[in-house]
Amino acid sequence: MYAPPPKKMLIINILDILKKHTDENHRLSQKDIIEILNKEYCMKIDRKSVKRNLMNLIEFGYDIEYSESIRLVKDKNGEEVESKILSDFYLNRPFTDGELRLLIDSVLFSNHISYSQCKDLVEKLEGLSNICFRSRVKHIRNLPENQPSNSELFMTIETLDKAISRGLQVSFTYNSYDIDKKLHPRKNSEGEVRNYIINPYQIVATNGRYYHVANYDKYDDISHYRLDRITNIRLLETPAKPKKKVKGIENGLDLPKHMAEHIYMFSGESVTVRFITKRYLTTEIIDWFGKDIKFSDETDDEVTVTVKANETAMQLWALQYAKHIMVISPQSLVDKIKDDIAFAMENYK
Prior knowledge:
Number of strands: 12
Helix content: 25-40%
Largest sheet: 6 strands, antiparallel
Distance between the termini: 82 Å
Number of helices: 11
Shape: elongated
Radius of gyration: 30 Å
Strand content: 25-35%
Oligomer: single chain
Order of helices and strands: HHHEEHHHHEEEEEEHEHEEHEH
């Protein structure tokens, strides 16, 4: 025969009920809690015990809200006296449903998390709310498992976090995909697996991918590495190179500026680029480059835009929007784009 849980579990079960069933829009009376305890936990408890344990949870520091009302009840002598009634109990949560939905969507549409990792993360995020929220998002599923994945991704993130916080170098293997859809280590000229020793400075997310902004120890400029392409990462005991010794971040890493100038995370110095664009593209241009851009020579249909950006990234971006923009400087970039367009036309002849 099933034995009912011990009374000492009462406070834990009441907390579990508040976590599962309540939020600001879903509140429970003491009677509701008693009914759930009986139905789901096989515990028959009186109202005084429920109230005492709720007050203990609040005293222990749990953020539980409730409402108070005054009712007239009869005492032992049959006289009416005022009694304070507590009801509408709910547990305040660290995340609103909207915030959780945003986090879940960010996980679902990530390009670097595998299906199984994504599923586990979504379930953990759903667990931060109540059953009402979980019932609303149960239809959400990740895209089919048709994209390559790297099972070492979370370990890579944790190791890089430690390295950045402690100011240490890391070493790892950097990989590329081949037509077998599997990661293969990059090799040096002798055909040996190349060992990267890196000074990491920042982890960033852009275009649905995770990168880390770093310096390859042999050189003095900034590099970017996809986290989902990294395997065999190790935290080293050697100190990382100070930023003041790295070209482009001598005065510190201005992350918003850096991200706006490296829209495709290519390495290399940024240049001042001017291009003419159709005005209907203004919103997308601000989405790509942020608000630290300059508009000039505007007409009803066109406007000239000045941005600071990586030249290789701008070359790729300009080809993507070739029907809508025309780069006018620097001349070196104009020439590269012309060559790319001519080469593409030859391919389609």
